[in-house]
Amino acid sequence: MSGEVTVLVFAGIALALIALMLWGWRRRARRDAGVAAPVGPVRGEPRAVFGGLYVATTRHDAPLDRLGVRHLAYRSRVQVSVTSAGVALDMPGEPTVFIDAPRIAGIGRATWTIDRVVEPDGLVLLAWTADDGTVCDTYLRLQDGDPDALVAKVDRLRTDSASTPTGAL
Question: Which of 1-15, 70-84, 96-110 has the lowest mean pLDDT?
Fold first, then answer.
């Protein structure tokens, strides 16, 4: 009899934890409802393509504050395309997220973010601005291609876009 009670207690605890996780995720989704990933077709001339994993999107300089951004809420495989007009993130089952060059606030390397730690500088951090003005940090882990090459391509894109008059791309 006591074995059955123990199983029921542990099952109740497990259900309570699952319910709390769902409640927390729904709260986060409501909190972040105004932060939207820019979706749309890929524009510009192709410059480079990289394959890897989309890890997470957080508030800028707050790598433990995951954002529940629609189309960027869950880990996934990703194809990152750098064009003359911006950066495209293609994930299975999601529309293409296209971040125009003027939205890109920065690019660099990172070692950790929410629930993910890798070797030093094993992640690529792409900082971008959402429509509502929120600056977001998107973390990518490349599997196909050199992370330094992606950083250099996006940095070059930022430099080119800063010296090009608005609308000329």
Answer: 1-15
Dist. CA 101–CA 82, nearest whole Å: 10
Between β-strands 104-110 and 86-90, what pairing exists: parallel, antiparallel or unpaired? unpaired
Cα distances (angstroms) measured from residue 137 to each of 22, 57, 93, 106, 162: 24, 5, 22, 9, 20
- The predicted pLDDT at position 169 comes to 39
Instruction: Express each pLDDT in 42-101 by its tens digit.
Output: 999 999 999 999 999 999 998 988 888 888 888 999 999 999 999 999 999 999 999 999
Contact 101, 43 (CB under 8 A): no
Residue 27 has a pLDDT of: 76
